[in-house]
């Protein structure tokens, strides 16, 4: 399958085309993010977000540009957004004797926050149980047991790209379940 054909088929919601595009461009996007973040987990997470966003917005892809360039641009923007969110936790405060100083925001949870978190976790677990068992398993392995994609692949005895796609689908389905409420 050629990339151009895969893009046309992906726009028609062909899952095999999505898999082909993921397999073809995963290493490029991942390597790009690994250079930027210098952290394998962050690079993987951003790469997954990149493909998720790209596949959701595949209809907006302009064929006058290379598909790889489009993916890298999406990936770069996701990384920039994450950096901006991180910078919001540290904010510049007023001058004191002409010296700038930074105030670190206290993110430690209050007792109320802990109760809310426990309630939200219970809701999330109920929502996860609404997924098919194989999606439950991959979410459990990734987010609760904190296994890498390689470790999940070995545990499930499946190729790593299948694990990535399964996790991507599981997250989308879980998001749909959560937003239905």
Spatial gap, N to C terminus: 40 Å
**What fraction, in percent, of the residue positions are helical?**
over 70%
**Can you identify the CATH superfamily of the largest domain?**
RNA polymerase sigma factor, region 2, helix turn helix motif
What is the H/E order?
HHHHEEHHHH
How many domains comprise the coordinates? 2
> Nearest-angstrom radius of gyration?
20 Å
Describe the protein's topology.
Layout: H1 3-11, H2 15-37, H3 40-56, H4 67-87, E1 90-92, E2 102-104, H5 111-128, H6 133-144, H7 149-156, H8 160-180
Antiparallel strand pairs: 1-2
Question: Could you characterize what this model shows?
Answer:
One of its GO terms (biological process) is DNA-templated transcription initiation. Pfam families: Sigma70_r2, Sigma70_r4_2. This is RNA polymerase subunit sigma-70. GO terms for molecular function: DNA binding; sigma factor activity. InterPro entries: RNA_pol_sigma-70-like, RNA_pol_sigma-70_dom, RNA_pol_sigma70_r2, RNA_pol_sigma70_r4_t2, RNA_pol_sigma_r2, RNA_pol_sigma_r3/r4-like, WH-like_DNA-bd_sf. The protein has 181 residues and is mostly helical. It folds into 2 domains: 3-87, RNA polymerase sigma factor, region 2, helix turn helix motif (Rna Polymerase Sigma Factor, Chain: A, Orthogonal Bundle), CATH 1.10.1740; 108-180, Winged helix-like DNA-binding domain superfamily/Winged helix DNA-binding domain (Arc Repressor Mutant, subunit A, Orthogonal Bundle). The protein is 71% helix and 3% strand. It has 8 helices and 2 strands; from the N terminus they run ααααββαααα. It has helices at 3-11, 15-37, 40-56, 67-87, 111-128, 133-144, 149-156, 160-180; strands at residues 90-92, 102-104. The chain has a two-stranded antiparallel ribbon with strand order 1-2. Helix 3 (40-56) packs across helix 4 (67-87). The longest helix is centred in the first third of the chain and has 23 residues, at 15-37. The chain is globular and about 55 Å long. The N and C termini lie far apart (40 Å). The relative contact order is 0.09. Residues 92-98 have low confidence and may be disordered.
